[in-house]
Amino acid sequence: MAPRLHRPRRRTIALVILALLALAALGGAWYLQPQPLLPEAQESLGAKPDTAFERVGDNYEWMPPSMHYSAGLVVYPGAKVPPTAYGPLAQQIAAHGYLVVVVSMPLNLAVLDIDAADGVMAAHPEVTRWAIAGHSLGGAMAAQFVASHPGVMRGLALWAAYPTADLSRSGVACTSIYGTLDAGVGQITSQATRNLLPSDCAFVPIQGGNHEQFGYYTGQPNDPPATITRDDQQAQVAEATLEMLARVQAQPNQFPAPASPGPSASGAPSSAPAGS
User: How much is the pTM?
Assistant: First the structure.
């Protein structure tokens, strides 16, 4: 009789396990569901009077219509955010004479392809100066790329993001741009974060901005509503990023710049020329 009593129990346990697996699969599917895009994202996928556009593989590229540029910006999207959400912002930056490439990430998670910038750079040998930007998780992974590829990226723009690697001696032109209403502003601006970045890294607050308005998408969890328009926030992000790119353009050809030699043995200051 004992086996007959055990069979229903085994069947019940199997059903419970199957139900838990189904719930886990549904939860995973929900978590990986991309954030919904706004119409402006799709509208950015094309040429405009001041920008050209091209889709190369899974990546999206904007550039000046003249196709004349020497500096490029790689963009890593935020978690679960499709790359096209950053199209309008990429357009604004590219219109000032830069190549801007927004990278597609596996499952829309930059952590799954931290080295995606390698392929972008290999495809554009005409670019002599590179910088990288990233939103949220994409910003953290962009910073990780800079740390693991010293001397490759000349600039870094953190959009509502902070690094986990020490970049304090990287020499990159750096800017950290954030909305003052972002729930993560404390970590973004903390002293611990500042210690990981170059001492001259610019911190640019956007008054009334939030986390979501760095892109054209909706549904950002736990994000307070912004008190400024998305267009206004995007314009400020573009301006601060362009300032970083201008610093990249002004850097000496040798990068990172060699460290200034200390005093000579006699105690006299070094006579090395400045601005080399």
Answer: 0.84
